[in-house]
């Protein structure tokens, strides 16, 4: 809108107002007196251009995007903390109860005991929010001495931590809300409700799935796979905790909602490849697995067809692979159709040279 308001254009307009008999050349007193003001006006027009764009969510980022979508009621999901199952034993390998609030460390991350689940079994929460705390397992070191404890193990991820919602994810939720007829408990509103819960990336609603008044909502996590049961339970509690049509959640009275994780369909790939000189088969396999995962993520709740030719393209896009033969996908050489409410995930990948 203000692109034409350059330093040169502003200076030209100013100098045009100066009588021709006066020296207006660059380096003259008049030119040098006007130039700083012209430069400041150029910066001002640039800021005006930026402010105009900030009115549109697609042109915004960070806090500006938060403000641009605020009118719709959509807020950016904050980072959450990973929760784990911790196992504790004494010297005789008997279950050992540690105090609630005890803090432990592993691999530069700290974890705090928040809840007792059973004898010697406790829920621990990572003190660092985000996905960084999801991948650490093993022996725990107590930050404070606990008499009688001989063994402490971080054994199972109960609820993954989530990073703060990205601009791309927030914008996608916003565009879904304003572009779809989300109202009165229709199918799109159930999907929106589900995606408001941390740990849910996509959702698909199935009206009347078990008769009148029923709706099923299938969920995907941030990794485009079925989310943990704790996330499913959280969505169930938010939408319809009692499942009796009494409207105890956000679902309208009379509706019975059932929340489930997407059914995972493993995609097994086997292929013979011809590699470039010096290529390492194990590294090529790792690259292939990464490429296949990224391809399958693009299909999640968007395209029900896993295409044989697209998998072939992923193979040929890996630089060390010169050619391939005998490609099979789940034992066949054709496309695979994924049922509604299911998601294709990578199974086994076998690469033969």
From TrEMBL:
Give the Baseplate J-like central domain ranges.
183-260
What domain of life does the UniProt record list for this protein's source?
Bacteria
User: Which Pfam family, an example, fits this chain?
Assistant: Baseplate_J_M
According to the entry, every stretch annotated as the Baseplate J-like C-terminal domain falls at: 268-352
Q: Which InterPro entries match?
A: Baseplate_J-like_C, Baseplate_J_M, Phage_Baseplate_Assmbl_Protein
The similarity comment for this entry is: Belongs to the Mu gp47/PBSX XkdT family.
Protein's name in the database: Baseplate J protein
Q: Which organism is it from?
A: Paenibacillus plantiphilus
